[in-house]
Amino acid sequence: MSLIDSLLNDFFWRALLGGVGVALVAGPLGCFVVWRRLAYFGDTLAHSALLGIALSFLISLPLNLAVILTCVCIALLLVLLSRTRTLATDTLLGILAHSALAIGLVTLSFMPEVRLDLTGLLFGDLLAMSRDDLLWIYGGAVLVLALLVRLWRGLLMSTIHEELARVEGVPVERLRLILMVMFSLVIAVAMKIVGVLLITALLIIPAATARRLARTPEHMVGLAMIFGCLAVAGGLALSWYLDTPAGPSVVVTAFATFLLTYAATVKATA
Amino acid sequence: MTEPLVTLDAVTVRFDGRTAVDRVTLSIRRGDILTIIGPNGAGKTTLIKALLGLQPPTAGTVTRQPGLVIGYVPQNLHMEATLPLSVRRFMALSGRPAEECAQALARTGIGHLADASIHHLSGGEKQRLLLARALARRPDLLVLDEPAQGVDINGQAALYHLIRELRDQLNCGVIMISHDLHLVMAATDKVICLNQHVCCSGYPADISHDPAFIETFGRSVAESVAVYHHHHNHRHNLHGDVIPTIPETSDSHGHRCSHEPH
Description:
The complex is a heterodimer of chains A (270) and B (262). With 270 residues, chain A is mainly α. Chain A has one domain (10-262): Orthogonal Bundle (ABC transporter involved in vitamin B12 uptake, BtuC), CATH 1.10.3470.10. Chain A has twelve helices and no strands. The longest helix of chain A is centred in the middle third of the chain and has 30 residues, at 131-160. Chain A is globular. In chain B, strands 5-6-7-3-8-9 form a six-stranded mixed beta sheet, with helices on both faces. Chain B has a three-stranded antiparallel beta sheet with strand order 2-1-4, covered by helices on one side. Mean pLDDT of chain B is 78; it is low at 226-233 and 245-262. Chain B folds into two domains: 6-69 and 141-261, Rossmann fold (3-Layer(aba) Sandwich), CATH 3.40.50.300; 82-138, no CATH class. With 262 residues, chain B is α/β, with parallel strands linked by helices. Chain B is globular. In chain B, a hairpin with a 1-residue loop joins strand 8 (190-195) and strand 9 (197-202). The interface between A and B is medium-sized, with 23 and 25 residues. Chain B: Pfam families: ABC_tran. Chain B: Keywords: ATP-binding, Cell membrane, Ion transport, Membrane, Nucleotide-binding, Translocase, Transport, Zinc, Zinc transport.
């Protein structure tokens, strides 16, 4: 017990544990982002997280809760608006993503008494991980992973062929909604690690790296988790030895792994 | 007579004021093979989707027998290349035991491809895979949207033959969309010629004589499957709309076309 306690007293270990926790959920969800082409959607939710932060100060809600609620609302709004089909989905996402970010920034500027580390929010503040943050991360991770395991077949089937899944009785719409809530949860906790602007990278890059090597969907998910953890560890090491910003270092490591894997598999198949 | 598996009653589907399906009434029973033919944009796929419950009708009702198991073969299996998936795994996702999945693959002639990635299948192999997947579910009703798409000409005849066999074996109903008029005429029990509304329907031998059929597919096609033709009470323009050349009568939408010998 004292070993764990002393580990948790060390900011470096807290950062590593928190990063690994997020990477473990970002792996499977990142795979869904890649499979369902939701990259821009993830970006939009991440950007709206800033609006959530502004709201949390405005109505004094806990930060994480406010971010989750805002992300869920934006996700629902997106689903509703995309049904009307008057605008292309990417246009709609572009409008919402940047408007949410801008409204968040403008709202924060009205609250001069709130001293906020904007850089930390935008690019992550991994080294400032608190014990409370860890609790949020691991609570969220357990919840999301349990849901994923339980709903796996339906989620996979509706990703492969939505109409076929619907004919076979899979509750496609409900699963889509649950997936969105899970994204919102992960974004709320991942914000701490890599920041609003880099969250999508943490979702997509490990999953895309895994795709080069995977033969089954589950294989891809497992590899994405491993690559995510490697990116967190590598980024922290980079930050430790070269004094680089931790969040961007994680993304840089993930990208380097992606390039290396790509080069290796191209060579192997050539 | 057995209860119909599915009944459509005056089903209409409109998109932005454009009518895709116009007051279509039909029913399918066990053992029926019903084929929907019609030109591009005739609303065939929309009709199928309404039947499957994927597209809510604007008007009219769709009644499916409670607990009905449907095997659906969609028009194409667009696969996101980012999702690694083998044929065996795709079959297993149907929730059926591995043995039955293997049998269904063998039945459609792609048993040797079980370990292949579904991204490396040809168009014809994909169609067979989708059919195998539908089979593994032991459907009461098979719904096929252009099942022979991408299948070579010998394969097509074999595929329609297989569908007939499956109907006999499973004692299921079959409804399919097809463009392969010659093969359909030989392999089906009943044909519905759709052009938003039901132009004409009946048994293959009769329908190729129907003027609405000739109107829709052109004389040369109709002549190759028919022996004689006759007039009817409405004409279509290039969009398939009915041109009211004669005063609108109560059944001017051709739910019943008049059959006068030429």
